[in-house]
């Protein structure tokens, strides 16, 4: 494939945008090479500036669950734009999307809209701190909750130690209030809680993590977190920015039947426009300004264009619940197909999957937390795989730590092409 124009555009971009991108993972730094500049997208395909057509497994990192330029979403945005793009006042459409979200998601009474998943998680933690009067939080190594200071904490030398900042600019003061645990290690979490008695406001977790590959929760792990929170008065925050409106209409809470105290959303809820949201039962949500004391705000929060896209997207999903079965089935087909060809090619691998979240790791060892995911990525095979797939017209995320984002626009023919590409790319791979 030729990427002449993309490379030229990247060179220009680098002169005026740090690293040429507005979000680091787009830069292909982990896999090498120049990023591809996209001109347009439709359904399961994206078209780059050099005219290459690619089958898309990034789907804007999750939002485009029904494929690109989905007509009801695009039409809703166009119609709404004609009436003005932002007023900074309440609008009826905000109530409509809130009503629908509350209907679709179990265990929530009220929802507040923000502009990104980062804002949703940041605000949820502030709310949890305000509600409980406690300051510390527990997060899991390898779970990503956006780029707010409290979350940019990597695993230190074990679950018991205080976190250290992994980005300059995050103060030690902030870092010490974020306690790190290993995903799927319930005993480790219990120990942290024991050692920080009455200091912890919340445990925030991607209930099905998608930012260290896709990690299935071990049996009893999420249930154990719920129980622990019930016993200690700690609030359980499910970050469903990736899994919400994807693993089921009601996200992981519905799929696995486990309730969280606060739930964060992003990605699908905005239909491809910048939207995040957080939600909880009345008792907690009424702690927010202007009713309660916890301040949280946004000039463009609940923006009418964003709400129009989100409402159209959620309406599609609620009126066609078969979509969730359909994408699960497609992902299972892809899983089975890839497994078969990787086995036939003698490639050591592990494929993790929960519903329509899936990741391929080039190691036979189980990938169940951040440490094992990082270990599996060490051999560098993913980079070779990524570039090989791209050369064959398949666009997967340029990182060994991302799930593939499956859209319902993918046809079985697209999936067969993808499986054939995996077969070709992984011949003589080891
Ligand atoms: N939480 C999770 C689970 C995510 O995957 C992401 C983004 O990928 C975020 C939060 C942050 O969302 P945003 O990039 O919209 O700020």
Q: From the 3D coordinates, which CATH architecture of the largest domain would you assign?
A: 3-Layer(aba) Sandwich
Tally of individual domains: 2
Main pleated sheet:
7 strands, mixed
- Output the helix-strand order: HEEEHHEHEEEHEHEHEHEEHHHEEHHEEH
Specify the structural class: alpha/beta
Q: Helical stretch count? A: 14
Content of β-strand = 15-25%
Q: Spans with pLDDT under 50 lasting ≥5 residues?
A: 155-162
What's the total number of strands? 16
What is the radius of gyration?
21 Å
The backbone outline, from C-alpha atoms, is globular
- What's the helical proportion of residues? 25-40%
Q: Enumerate the distinct ligands.
A: pyridoxal-5'-phosphate
CATH homologous superfamily grouping of the largest domain: Type I PLP-dependent aspartate aminotransferase-like (Major domain)
Mean pLDDT: 95
Distance between the termini: 24 Å
Organism: Zunongwangia mangrovi
Cofactor: pyridoxal 5'-phosphate
Family: Belongs to the class-III pyridoxal-phosphate-dependent aminotransferase family. HemL subfamily.
Catalytic activity: (S)-4-amino-5-oxopentanoate = 5-aminolevulinate
